[in-house]
Amino acid sequence: MSKREELIAKYADDLKNKCGVTPDMDFLTKVTIGCGPSIYNKDSSTVSGGSATEIATVKNNFLIKKLGLADSADLDKAIDSVLETYGKSNRNKYRAVVYYMLAKHFKKESVYK
Q1: Structure pTM?
Q2: What is the per-residue pLDDT for 30?
Q3: pLDDT of residue 104
Q4: How far apart are CA 65 and CA 15, in angstroms?
Q5: Computed from CA positions of residues 8, 9, 11, 12, in that sequence, does the dihedral angle turn out positive or negative?
Q6: Structural domain boundaries of the chain?
Q7: Is residue 15 within 8 Å of 100, Cβ to Cβ?
Q8: Residue 83 and residue 80: Cα distance in Å, rounded?
Q9: Which superfamily does 3-108 belong to?
């Protein structure tokens, strides 16, 4: 099993056990690949829900640039909702899991086709 496959299995476990979501493994794999090398770095592989700059990065680089969404209050609400679902007290919120849930929330799976 490759390192990426191990990480995808870890992300799927988080989706099931921490978020109560049954993961679409093909889509999760595409989102994970889309995160690039950041998944292998301890700091960049997670999202800090308490950091305003981190939230801005998710909003600007993922929701606006990657998914092509217009900047609006809905984006902030969606990020809050995803982080709440993942668990505010959970220290390790994996970027691939957060991106997966946001892409599903906005029904933007087609971006990864």
Answers
A1: 0.96
A2: 97
A3: 98
A4: 24
A5: positive
A6: 3-108
A7: yes
A8: 5
A9: Jann4075-like (1.10.238.120)
Taking alpha carbons only, the member of 51, 105, 45 closest to residue 81 is 105
- Residue with token string 């939230």: 55
Tokens describing residue 73: 């209050």
* Cβ burial 80-99 (10 Å sphere, 16+ → b, else e): eebbebbeeeeeebbbbbbb
3-class secondary structure for the chain?
Answer: CCHHHHHHHHHHHHHHHCCCCCCCHHHHHHHHHHCHHHHHCCCCCECCCCCHHHHHHHHHHHHHHHCCCCCCHHHHHHHHHHHHHHCCCCCCCEHHHHHHHHHHHCCCHHHHC
